[in-house]
Specification:
There is one protein chain. The protein is mostly beta strands. About 10% of the residues lie in helices and about 50% in strands. It contains one helix and five strands, in the order βββαββ. It is globular, with a radius of gyration of 11 Å.
């Protein structure tokens, strides 16, 4: 699934993305580290993998969108 980086805190390596429908979805340090990223800037297109559904939905992986 694709999204846009919305917030990012380099100290905690966590933040949030906006899904294409405008829904914000937070990610934690584990999801950021799983993608092997070093930095993320708001506005960057990312690819995410999501686990769970509804209120239990969470991001498991954040990587950069490549073409």
């Amino acid at each position: 699934m694709q999204a846009t980086a919305y917030t990012y805190d380099p100290d905690s390596r966590s933040g949030s993305v906006l899904l294409d429908d405008g829904t914000p979805l937070p990610f934690d340090t584990a999801a950021f580290d799983a993608g092997g990223l070093r930095l993320l800037r708001p506005g960057q297109r990312v690819r995410i993998e999501v686990q769970g559904e509804g209120e239990a939905r969470q991001i498991a992986l954040v990587t950069l969108q490549t073409f």
